[in-house]
Write a structure and sequence with these properties.
The structure holds two protein chains of two kinds. Chain A is α/β, with parallel strands linked by helices. Chain A is about 35% helix and about 25% strand. A six-stranded mixed β-sheet of chain A has the order 7-8-9-4-10-11, sandwiched between helices. In chain A, strands 1, 2, 3, 5 and 6 form a five-stranded antiparallel β-sheet that branches. Chain A is globular, with a radius of gyration of 18 Å. Chain A starts with a strand and ends with a helix. Chain B contains 17 helices and no strands. The mean pLDDT of chain B is about 85. Chain B has two domains: about 120 residues; about 180 residues, MetI-like fold, CATH 1.10.3720.10. By secondary structure, chain B is an all-alpha fold. The radius of gyration of chain B is 26 Å and the shape is globular. The chains are: A alpha/beta, B mainly alpha.
């Protein structure tokens, strides 16, 4: 599985995610109509597009929260199929952050973060909690460790969610509109954490409309519409030289509102 | 000094006299209503108290308290239910020490009640000094258990294990006994009765039906067609049939199909019927909780790499069960009261003993008011403490939800 992809910066990177002709139907509605994408180790990918374009569905197929019905998805050398053990192995290597945070409300912040390392990685409790504390410091809220999610602000909750995903020491992080449910003054604190993470070399796929974030750290951007990739390229290509009319129209709408 | 927002507290609540004037005597009509209601309450209370203390004839209750407690259990073997009681109160005390407030009120009340019962000056030959002594030791054992529970060496799971061992010991060894052991002669369940049987059925029914109900609820949502269909079938059939019917089915029909020597004991059959019935209702209550869990919770739990088993046991069930505590406790209370239906299949539970006592002597026949009131009070005490404990549990578990 040592496919080499060539990126805009000219460096050659080992592909960690390979998608070939991925299709997905909900009943008769086709959500994905043949997605091809290769992501190299350490790349930061921004996916954007109108709602219903299939971008969330696509990143959810990468850790098989959604099953694709046609095509091939290979993550870190493991193909996603009906084999449950493969799916669990892949999920341990992929962290995911959701629009609605989805923290576990009956557990403290500390328990939210240390749960998966304890049960899925079989770490001893004190090791998992020590690691969780370090992550909380990294996202800037170590003092909230013993609180319940409901007692935190939206921005704090999303930072806990990032720490929870990082606790499994994933090779890839997926972000599904991580700032869309946040009040404007909290968006920055979450983006700052994500930018730090991107600069640390994490492979990231981010569904977002935060174009500032894309300009700052994205290696490549993909514009999704109607279940297809309409256009892709570096942030420079997309912002300064968009080729497709659909892309131009969408960018003009989200950049000038 | 400028008043800040913090220094202005909420307005002080009105003094009692003001409150009465404002709410009960604010115009002539309300004043009239207040006076009439107070008068009614006064006369009703006086009538009730006078009836209870003067008119009522409590002899059916006082003539044989042991009958209400253990039924026809052989009097020379009374140490066995007595020891079971002591073991239970000790463990209740220990549960109080470990789990604090859910058990606290019940443990204290039970201790006081049993202590007071021991000292009631009844001139009944069956109440020997030994019986009184057993009752009197209970409060001490509860306290002893509490102190031990507080030591910190005993954890919740230990107490749960003690309870399991103790109940198996009591129900399978101590109370029924064995044919071949003279010290533990066999006591057939037909001789068991009274509160002992009521509590055995209720506690057994609750403890056994809960896990079955949870499994059925999960089964009903399973993606495996066989599991799903059999769960739905079980739940819908049992829920569509009255408890009396199920009791009859288990006690009569089941017996018909089994050879006489391998017949399951009558009491066990009744218990099985209660468990089946309660499990179906528990399943539907739990399903309500499962459906209320947002899908995002499952997504998030899967995304961090938890297996399906852990997603269910660590994320979904804890939240779902917490949500349905009120419904489940309500259902357990009604199961507790439904145990009285076993009279129909010839088991002398508390209510059955009540009926039997009324027939003890011709003088007692018209005293059903006293007997049934006495039984009602006993049921109320236990039911009330169940709902009290559930409130405490809800409060304690609701920590993260605010």
């Amino acid at each position: 599985m040592n496919k080499i992809t060539k990126n805009n910066d000219g460096k050659k990177r080992e592909a960690i995610i390979v998608c070939r002709d991925v299709h997905k139907w909900y009943g008769h509605f086709q959500a994905l109509k043949g997605i091809n994408m290769e992501v190299g180790k350490g790349e930061v990918i921004v996916i954007f597009g109108p709602s219903g374009s299939g971008k969330s569905t696509f990143i959810r197929t990468l850790n098989r929260l959604e099953e694709h019905q046609k095509g091939q998805i290979i993550v870190d050398g493991i193909e996603l199929t009906h084999d449950v053990r493969n799916v669990e192995r892949v999920r341990m290597e992929i962290g995911m952050v959701f629009q609605q945070f989805n923290l576990f409300p009956h557990l403290t912040v500390m328990q939210n973060i240390s749960l998966a390392p304890i049960w899925a990685r079989k770490w001893p409790k004190d090791k998992a909690e020590k690691a969780a504390m370090e992550l909380l410091e990294r996202v800037g809220i170590p003092e909230q460790a013993q609180k319940y999610p409901a007692h935190l602000s939206g921005g704090q909750q999303q930072r806990v969610a990032i720490a929870r995903a990082l606790a499994m020491q994933p090779k890839i992080m997926l972000f599904d509109e991580p700032t869309s449910a946040l009040d404007p003054e909290m968006i920055k604190e979450v983006l700052d954490v994500m930018i730090k993470l991107a600069r640390s070399g994490m492979t990231m796929l981010v569904v977002t409309h935060e174009m500032g974030f894309a300009k700052a750290v994205a290696d490549r951007m993909y514009f999704f519409d109607n279940g297809l990739i309409v256009e892709s390229g570096t942030p420079d290509d997309i912002f300064k030289r968009p080729k497709e009319d659909r892309t131009k129209l969408f960018l003009s709408q989200i950049l000038t509102h | 000094m400028r008043a800040t927002a913090e220094s202005i507290g909420p307005p002080a609540p009105p003094r009692p006299v003001e409150w009465v004037r404002k709410n009960l005597f604010n115009d002539w009509f309300n004043a009239l209503l207040t006076i009439v209601s107070l008068g009614f309450l006064y006369f009703a209370l006086v009538a009730i108290v006078r009836w209870a203390l003067v008119t009522a004839d409590w002899r059916p209750v006082t003539v044989s308290p042991l009958l209400f407690l253990v039924g026809q259990y052989p009097r020379d073997q009374l140490w066995r239910p007595g020891f079971s009681l002591l073991l239970s109160t000790f463990l209740i005390g220990m549960s109080w020490g470990v789990w604090e407030r859910y058990v606290k009120a019940f443990a204290i009340f039970l201790g006081i009640l049993l202590g007071v019962l021991a000292l009631i000056p009844l001139e009944t030959p069956t109440i020997t000094f030994a019986v009184r002594a057993v009752f009197l030791v209970n409060p001490l054992l509860i306290y002893l258990g509490y102190r031990i529970g507080r030591l910190g060496a005993v954890k919740g799971r230990h107490v749960a294990m003690f309870w399991l061992i103790a109940s198996v010991l009591m129900v399978l060894v101590l109370l029924p006994g064995y044919k071949n052991i003279p010290a533990l002669t066999e006591v057939p369940t037909s001789a068991w009765g009274g509160l002992m049987v009521t509590l055995l059925l209720a506690v057994g029914g609750i403890v056994l039906s809960f896990p079955i109900g949870v499994l059925l609820a999960l089964g009903r949502r399973s993606s495996l067609p066989v599991v799903k269909i059999s769960s739905i079938l079980f739940i819908e059939v049992v829920r569509g049939v009255p408890l009396v019917t199920i009791l009859f089915m288990f006690s009569v029909i089941l017996a018909l199909f089994m050879p006489a020597e391998s017949r399951i004991d009558r009491l066990i059959r009744a218990l099985m019927a209660m468990v089946f019935f309660s499990a179906a209702y528990t399943a539907e209550n739990v399903r309500g909780g499962l459906q209320a869990i947002p899908l995002g919770q499952v997504d998030a739990a899967k995304a961090v790499g938890l297996t399906n088993f852990h997603v269910t046991t660590l994320i979904v069930l804890p939240q779902a069960l917490r949500m349905v505590i009120p419904a489940i406790v309500g259902q357990f209370i009604s199961l507790f009261k439904d145990t009285t239906l076993v009279v129909i299949v010839g088991i002398n539970d508390l209510l059955g003993i009540g009926g039997a006592v009324l027939n003890l002597s011709p003088e007692f026949v018209r005293l059903n008011m006293e007997v049934y009131l006495f039984i009602a009070v006993i049921f109320w005490i236990f039911s009330y403490f169940m709902s009290y404990a559930s409130l405490q549990l809800e409060k304690a578990l609701g920590v993260g939800e605010r």
